[in-house]
Structure formats: C-alpha cells, structure tokens
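Q: Predict the bound structure with manganese (II) ion.
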Amino acid sequence: MEISGTAGKSVLIVEDNALNMRLFSALVSGQGHRVLQATDGPRGLDLARQESPDLIVMDVQLPGMSGLEVTRMLKDNPETADIPIIVTTAFGLRGDEKEVRDSGCDAFIAKPIGLSEFVDLVEDVMRCSARERQHMRRVIEARLG
Ligand code: MN
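A: Predicted complex:
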C-alpha cells in the first residue's frame, strides 16, 4: 500500500545529536521510507557515495567534517551531484547563511524544526525534478542575498 507519492525511497540522515537523529528517523520512516544513518561527516560522505540515497538530511556541525563540506564534496562530484540535500541548521551567527548557500544544498530548514514543516520539505524535495531543485536553489540565493 502506498503511503504517499514518494513512499519507499531511501533517506540518509547525517546527524550527531541523538535526539535529532531519533526524531528525523521516526518522521522519515513514518512516511514509509528506508532510513540510513551516519553520525559524523566522513561516514556520511561514504554512505552517500555507496548507497546513492534519494535524499540526504544533513546537519552542519558534525564530528570529523562539517555537513557543508560534505555537501560541497557531493555536489562537486558528478556521480553524487544529483542527490538532493536538505541542510538542517541553527542559524546563529551572521555569515552562516552565505556558507549554507555556497555549499550547493537544495534546501535548508532551521532548528528547532517544525514536524509538519520537516515532513513537507522532505516530500517536496524528493518529488522535485533536478530542474525544479535548481529553481529552489535560486530561491535560496534570493532569500539569503
Ligand atoms: Mn550537530
């Protein structure tokens, strides 16, 4: 039975905070998707390359390598550039926005995260074509200046 239009995808969650990991995993698996987990940057990069997930939910502050660095490396490689990436971030310091934008991520969501907002974004990004995601990136650029 189909739960939603994008059910049955694989979603890699890269997050070092155990509570956030449990929350995101529960929301994603509740939508009918398979969850892959990594708790540091290098492991996230490896899993993304090995598993080619349909979506990555990427924390910024991670042990080993920042989530934005992992995002840049995946977006710079033609083999992984098309995997959509949602960056989850607590915008604190001014200047973070530019770094998020420059990483090449497809979307971002600020912590603390609204549950339905998160689920909607996950589904929307997976439903989008690569062309539509390019448009979303332009929207991010416009929003972040
Ligand atoms: Mn973190």
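A: The pocket of manganese (II) ion is lined by residues 16-17, 59, 61-62 (CB under 6 Å).
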